[in-house]
Specification:
single chain; alpha/beta; three-stranded antiparallel β-sheet; 32% helix
């Protein structure tokens, strides 16, 4: 007897069901070494920068500079961390807006694309700040803390990571690598500061992680904004009531699974499924 209803699942690119993203703050000079490690193992990251601190810093080599970020972070994402890294819960809201907007303006001029993400400086956030960020052009923002799980966030403006790199990193990586149930989507999200590896003399910690988790066919390696954009595009797919056709009004392709068969839905296409 023919089934009356199909089982349709959202997939990640190429039909995958797992994604990994990295998130690093402050734009210290040690980002250069971290980017090299990421590139070596095919890991993609988002780097949250304070453009005003770059301009103020008189210590040679203390921070990456504006004139290098386009090339340094090529293939990764440059994101906002506010202009001067204040504890924004204590700031007047109009000043919070300016901290975000001015940081975006400078970073965007340097990298040549819209900066649409952020991490909260000092982990500082309240409800009013969350509400104003979309009007500042911010589509996601990372909070501090660890979930030790692999769920996608309900609210990308309160995006909590799986773990800091000093918190159960390899334990979480091994659990993540072993996940095989394709009826779920899984996301591992790691955050930190590159200078911590130098302070703790443990660069081998992040390199061992990247060596272990990189190069896997079942993992999509993505920046923060790539995940947001893709999940928004997947959410925006339009299905017929019968579930026999789907239209993708977005520019980017989206993958779905229909009764365990993977389909690629090109941007602007309407296909039978």
């Amino acid at each position: 007897m023919e089934r009356k209803l199909k089982t349709i699942y959202t997939c990640l690119p190429e039909g995958r069901h797992k994604a990994l993203t990295m998130s690093y703050d402050d734009g210290r000079s040690f980002d250069r070494r971290l980017v090299e490690i990421f590139n070596k193992y095919g890991i993609k990251g988002t780097f949250h920068l304070n453009s005003g601190l770059m301009e103020m810093d008189d210590q040679a080599g203390y921070r990456v500079q504006l004139d290098e970020i386009k090339e340094l972070y090529k293939g990764h994402e440059v994101s906002s961390h506010t202009m001067y890294h204040p504890t924004i819960e204590r700031c007047p809201l109009d000043q919070v807006v300016q901290q975000v907007i001015e940081d975006r303006k400078i970073l965007e001029k340097a990298v040549g694309y819209p900066v649409r993400g952020m991490s909260y400086p000092n982990g500082s956030v309240n409800e009013d700040i969350v509400k104003l960020l979309p009007a500042c052009g911010i589509e996601y923002c990372r909070v501090v803390g660890n979930t030790d799980d692999f769920a996608f966030p309900d609210n990308y403006l309160l995006w909590k990571s799986t773990c800091h790199h000093n918190h159960n990193l390899m334990e979480n990586a091994k659990r993540f690598a072993e996940l095989h149930k394709t009826q779920y989507l899984y996301l591992m999200y790691v955050w930190g500061h590159s200078y911590e590896f130098d302070n703790n003399d443990n660069w081998d910690h992040i390199e061992n992680f990247c060596r272990y988790i990189g190069g896997r066919d079942d993992i999509w390696y993505a920046t923060n904004i790539e995940i947001v954009d893709y999940m928004n595009a997947a959410k925006n797919l339009k299905y017929t009531a019968a579930g026999d056709m789907v239209f993708n009004p977005s520019a980017m392709p989206v993958w779905i699974s229909v009764d365990e068969k993977v389909h690629k839905v090109e941007g602007g296409a309407c296909i039978e499924i």
